[in-house]
Specification:
Helix 2 runs parallel beside helix 9 and helix 2 packs antiparallel against helix 10. Strands 3-4-2-7-8 form a 5-stranded mixed β-sheet, sandwiched between helices. A 3-stranded antiparallel β-sheet has the order 1-5-6, with no helix packed on it. The chain contains 16 helices and 8 strands. The protein is of the alpha+beta class and 427 residues long. The protein folds into 2 domains: 255 residues, no CATH class; 161 residues, 2-Layer Sandwich (Alpha-Beta Plaits), CATH 3.30.70.270. The relative contact order is 0.11. Helix 16 links the parallel strand 7 and strand 8. Helix content is 63%, strand content 9%.
């Protein structure tokens, strides 16, 4: 195992990588934010539908929940299906309870349970790993939701107990929460579930986790405006829509993004080639002696090398876009640029990769305790390694007038660079 921090502190290039990663995480929340905005704008409009469209007020949320469930099943996303199930139970429970006395024991118990359990479940699903639909983990998670729903039903339809009163009571020091229409513990549960979903999104960079975070926001708005006609139905429906959008975004990412490096995959490259104009440059990049490196240091270290190379390619200037071609090979596409335009930038990438030191911990170094601290201070136990890349570049010419032909020409130039001694660029 190794760290990307060479001795001497955190380099500026790592700061740039962190900033780029942060931007990607923020982008994941764009779609949920837009859906929440749509829900906020749609709520009053739905309440004013003409009589002939009144059926949409009841059937619309059901249709959206069913659609989200179908999407989850089609793409084998067990967590999303359970999240939709939790939203459906909450929607049905409140719809039935609200027909009774809104200040009665039934309504107060169901409403408190929704505000507490629903966001916690959504947050937990965001933090849990995806295990599919038909697995023992999926069965356990489904069982947990069913047990919760059964317990709430028993509490709500039985004699009043101290649990409902406790749910509506403000904890010591948090009396100001009583000003909200949401039970104070529910406010805390909403905040905790949202934080958990955001943390999961930052860790996994997945649109599904971002969708779960957005769904929690929709739930918060739904329970806050529960007395507004149809507000709860609208926000729950849009919460389910966020989950469906998250599944579709995540599926697109899996299809067009390389899971290891985060770069667009070869499928995305093939589509990009079809859209290129008359002027462009393609560069093929290959990690030198990668098989020998893997054999010596192991595949885990090899994966870190590929991630490091991808990070440098992702930041190439001159409008270049990096792609994972396969194995240790990458592709750079520069639209509207000639070889002469891009050569300085490709050379800068080659040099940056060559000078990037990877500090590798000795395999017998203790991982914990005093031995680990002594190991960290012993420079003799640390080794720094670096890798180099060979690059071939090509542009359209009389013989290579199609993107596929230019790609082959760049690949041929790559092998010329390797035959000349590697760690260089060839045309």
């Amino acid at each position: 195992m190794f760290t990307l921090f060479p001795s001497g502190g955190v380099p500026r290039r790592f700061t740039n990588m962190w900033a780029s990663s942060s931007v990607k995480v923020v982008v994941l929340f764009v779609a949920p934010a837009l859906v929440v905005l749509m829900a906020y704008l749609a709520a009053p409009w739905v309440a004013d539908l003409p009589p002939e469209l009144a059926g949409l007020q009841k059937l619309g949320p059901v249709a959206v929940l069913a659609f989200a469930a179908a999407i989850a099943i089609a793409f084998n996303r067990g967590r999303v299906l359970l999240a939709v199930l939790a939203l459906s139970i909450a929607y049905t429970g409140l719809h039935l309870a609200w027909n009774e006395d809104t200040a009665g024991h039934l309504s107060l118990t169901v409403f408190a349970a929704i505000t507490i359990l629903l966001p916690l479940n959504l947050g937990a699903l965001a933090l849990l790993k995806e295990r599919g639909l038909s697995s023992r983990w999926g069965a356990r998670r489904l069982g947990a939701i069913v047990v919760q729903a059964t317990a709430v039903l028993a509490l709500a339809t039985g004699r009043p107990t101290a649990l409902t009163q406790a749910a509506w009571g403000a904890p010591a020091g948090l009396a100001w929460l009583a000003a909200s229409p949401i039970p104070p513990i529910g406010v805390l549960a909403l905040a905790l579930g949202f934080v958990g979903a955001v943390v999961a999104t930052c860790l996994r960079r997945s649109a599904i986790e971002a969708g779960l975070a957005g769904a929690i926001v929709a739930v918060a708005l739904a329970v806050h405006d529960v007395t507004v006609p149809l507000a709860f139905e609208v926000f729950v429906a849009f919460g389910a829509m966020m989950l469906a959008v998250g599944v579709l975004q995540d599926t697109y990412r899996l299809a067009f993004r390389d899971e290891l490096t985060g770069l667009p995959s070869r499928r995305a490259l093939n589509e990009r080639l079809l859209a290129l104009g008359d002027r462009y440059t393609i560069a093929m990049v290959d990690v030198d002696h990668f098989k020998q490196f893997n054999d010596r240091w192991g595949h885990d270290v090899g994966d870190q090398v590929l991630k490091m190379v991808a990070a440098h390619l992702e930041r190439v200037a001159a409008g270049g876009r990096g792609y994972r071609y396969g194995g240790e090979e990458f592709t750079l596409v520069f639209s509207g640029r000639s070889v002469r335009d891009v050569l300085p930038h490709v050379e800068a990438v080659r040099e940056a990769i060559e000078h990037y030191a990877l500090a590798i911990r000795a395999p017998d170094r203790p991982k914990q305790g005093d031995g680990a601290r002594r190991g960290r201070s012993a420079r003799s136990e640390r080794q720094s390694v670096s890798v180099t890349v060979s690059i071939g570049v090509a542009e359209p010419s009389g013989r290579n007038d199609s993107p596929e032909a230019v790609l082959r020409a760049a690949d041929a130039a790559l092998y010329r660079a390797k035959n000349k001694g590697r760690n260089q660029i060839s045309r």
